Amino acid sequence: MAKTLDLFWHEHPLYEKYRMFTCQECHRSAIPFFEVFYGCFRCNIKWHPYCVPRSTKNINHPCHPNHPLEVLLQGPPSYSDEKCSLCQRKLSNFVYHCKLCNFSIDMECGNRPPPHKVDHPKCHEHALTLMGREVSFTCNACGTHGERNPYVCLPCSVMFHYDCIDLPHVININRHDHRISHSYPLKRGNWVCEICRQDINTTYGGYSCNKCPDFFVHSKCATRKDVWDGTELEGIPEEVVDVAPFEVIEEGVIYHFSHEKHNLFLIEDVFIDGAEDMHCEACARPVSSEKHYKCVECKFILHEECANLPLTKRHGLSTGIFYLRFGKDFSEQNFSCDACNRDGRGFSYKDEEGVVLDVLCASLSFFKHPKLHPHTLFLTTIDRGTCLACGENKLNVLRCVDCDYSLDYKCATLPLVIKHRCDTHYLVLRSGEEAPEGKYWCEICEAETNPERWFYTCDDCGVVCHIECVTGDFLNIKPGIIMKNRENKFEVGFNDHDSRPKCTDCGSRCRFPRFFKVTRKNIEYYYCSKACFQNAKF
Fold first, then answer.
1. Are residues 357 and 371 in the same domain?
2. End-to-end alpha-carbon separation of the chain, Å?
3. Which residues does the UniProt record annotate as the domain Zinc finger PHD-type (predicted)?
């Protein structure tokens, strides 16, 4: 039977139990079977025990030693900034407060006060003592500003945030393939943080790579939840993993693990006109002027870059390790990339949490094309942003640290040049800043183009096309691919004929370069886009 409690701030008896829940006060979820909570059967509300007051009595707190703190049950007073003076989280209903100093802390900071002395901190070789007062300082471990309650070592004249005294020494982050370690001060130099892309002050602490002499990261950036998996690796031997995807047989000849039948031969210095029927098995994009590996006995082709894809890698969209999926079991399965939301069929990367990336997005750590934008773009945060190439608001965008410019993964992985039936020449990707003056209409759909968005154009003929009209929804699926599902046969068709098929769903002629053809009971149905195909009921 659950233990019951009568606490002064709630009108009903509370019970004590272990279970998955979300705390009414701090709004954080508990780990199932590892945290106890107080709950009310009648109100269906639950709290962490440390997020509620135990008594109406004032408390003494080491971070505010001059005055006692009183319990407030209706939130912080209106004259306060409504943030906890220690952890800076937004205050909720229960608050410890000093009217004389306008000092407020939440229940967790009040019921779990920091220790007065830390004998063996990770950040320093000596014991540290809490300075329980308001004082402006710069933390020696992370280099950021603090306003109160530092931990100090007076003989060494150093100060640390409470959150920084146990920063992990050795960690893996999702922006680098090697381990990085914490130290202070850092090696002198003009370093830029590899995550936020801001300058690093080497007077203070940070993380660096022992194998890469110019890789440095701010302490706060390296330990972000979206960057670090939370595992301290000090004392744990590093595993040596072979990530090479092929064996070299001789110069220009490899045995690739994704093609067990035959060796692949490197093809150099070629230009394949009309290469629409030759597509890379990994990324599904056409093979034209790029170096590539080819099987002389069958139609298996890999871009040289795709042939060198590592078997494992890290990526900024997950803290886990991504594993390359290839071969018959995976290349014959459709997937949706969690970065660009394109459907794909070919090689992909997947981590243990189920995040799936196509090989183009998985290989994209930054975007640098001066003709499209003068600065380099990086994945600095995982906040939402508006892509200035297409105008859509996306969760994951690459950002420019020099100006307010963002680009989503779908636009960042667009082909720089592409062949389309609307023109005899290759179409070139251009930014909105390069749009010609006046009004222009898309050569394919004949609708007006937006001069502020990216577009495709022919430098010889001057035609202008919408990006979506040139690429369609099935850019990462090879034409000719046939899939079967029970009594249905699905095929990705290449729309290269004058008599374009009519879409079964919307009734218009398919204007995109690829379409879905579904054969059901010997009857053919055509779908011009992913949206139209999803409307079909099979």
1. no
2. 51
3. 22-102, 138-197, 279-341, 441-507
Same domain, 347 and 317: yes
- The model's pLDDT over 497-528, given as tens digits with 9 standing for 90+, comes to 666 889 998 988 888 888 888 888 888 889 88
Give CA–CA dist 307/35, Å, rounded: 48
Closest CA to 518 of 499, 500, 505, 509: 505
Quote the pTM value. Answer: 0.83
Residue ranges making up the domain that contains 276: 246-307
Band of residue 486 on the pLDDT scale cut at 50, 70, 90:
low
Compute φ and ψ for 438, nearest 5 degrees: 95, -175
**CB neighbour class for 48 (10 Å; exposed up to 12, middle 13-18, buried from 19):** buried
Q: Is the dihedral of CA 317, 321, 327, 332 positive or negative?
A: negative
Residue 11 CA to its chain's centroid (Å): 45
In the Cβ-directed half-sphere of 65, how many Cα atoms lie within 13 Å? 10
CATH number, domain with residue 294: 3.30.60
Contact (Cβ atoms closer than 8 angstroms) between residue 480 and residue 491: yes
Task: Write the pLDDT tens digit of every residue in 172-230.
Answer: 999 999 999 999 899 999 999 999 999 999 999 999 999 999 999 999 999 999 999 99
**Going by C-beta distance under 8 Å and a sequence separation of 6 or more, which residues neighbour residue 372?**
429, 430, 431, 454
Q: How far is the C-alpha of 391 from the C-alpha of 394, rounded, in Å?
A: 9
Query: Which spans in 374-450 are helix H?
Result: 409-412
- 23 burial type by CB count under 10 A (0-12 exposed, 13-18 middle, 19+ buried): buried
List own/partner pairs for 14-23 with CB under 8 A and 24 or more apart.
14/38, 14/39, 14/40, 15/39, 15/40, 15/41, 16/49, 21/46, 22/46, 23/47, 23/48, 23/51
Tell me the average pLDDT across 466-485: 84
User: What digits encode the pLDDT tens for the residues 109-148?
Assistant: 888 888 889 998 899 999 999 988 888 999 999 999 998 8
Of the ranges 403-407, 426-430, 530-534, which one carries the lowest mean pLDDT score?
530-534
For residue 157, is it within any domain? yes
The helix or strand, by DSSP H or E, that contains position 362, with its residue range, turns out to be helix 359-362
For residues 421 and 472, is the Cβ–Cβ distance under 8 A? no
Instruction: State the sign of the Cα–Cα–Cα–Cα dihedral 285, 287, 289, 294.
Output: positive
Tell me whether residue 472 is in a domain.
no
293 lies in the same domain as 344: no
Structure-block tokens of residue 119: 């004998």
